[in-house]
Putative glycosyltransferase (Congregibacter litoralis KT71), 345 residues
Amino acid sequence: MSELKGVYIVLLNWNGWRDSIACLESLIPNIRAGARVLVCDNHSSDESLNHIQAWARHERSAGISQHPRLAALQAKGQERPVTQRISRREAEAGLADPDAELILVDNGGNLGFAAGNNVGLRFALAQEDMQHVWLLNNDTLVEANCLPQMLNRLQAHNRPAVCGSVIHFFDDPSIIQCIGGNRFDALRGRALESEGRYLEEGAMPDVGTIERQLDYLTGCSMLLPRSFLETVGLMNEAYFLYYEEIDWFTRAARRFDLLVADGAHLYHREGGSIGSRSWNRGPSLISDQYMFRSRMHFMRSYYPRDLWRCTLSNWLDVVKRVVKGQWRNAAVIARELNRPSVEAQ
């Protein structure tokens, strides 16, 4: 089977080898169909790459989800992919065994989301057969038909386009977390709530309507044609965390339509590696730090005339954190708002 030949799947890992292994198990059908997977590791302290290599040798497992629907997505007892481990230098030069189905990349440092993923994107661009890249969060489980559904949606469209998917909450697979991506409020510099969030899966709205409303696709799952990377470029490495996708699609300037494949489903743990909010959990200190730092950098770069509205809105968030008794979060945000105008690293 080679219907997915030319598709490269890029996962970014940071101290999350169990999530990455579970995700890889759900990707086995795609690998068998010809897709290649890169796991780019941001200098994990938990020996993630060693654990993933052990999994490839049938010496390690991630454990099975307690939810029957999710457990069915993890391929057990199947042949593991041919695996090779390479350095960041080798990856960015496109150097790997052509028979390797799973390529583990040691990024050599914690590069953040944009720069970490860009290592994998540079590898993919160096491959002559690369036609599409699927940027996928490692804390997901995907249905076997997710990738083919996104490819079909792109191929049926008569204009340059990128494609997202229907993302469900891992903790409750019947509830939608996001349909494709988000709208963006440029006056305040804020992403609005993800499209379709908290809807029952049986209450899916018309996807065509959502596509017309989207300003960007979520970095959790986006299928990009080679032409997007060659036209728009890689992600902006000035951002360590957050706002990378917003910056990317702002630069794309509507040259590529934003599509959603309504038959492409996956399940996302959402922010577990950095402790960001999911369901009733509030934002972590790291989440608040980089969210507000990246927001200010983005607004200074693209909407300087509206920076005052964004700043006022951000200070209101400080007040809200204080009212909720989240003093440390309030202090972190205040420090970021007083930070000099520098890159978001």
Remarks:
- The two ends are 43 Å apart (CA to CA).
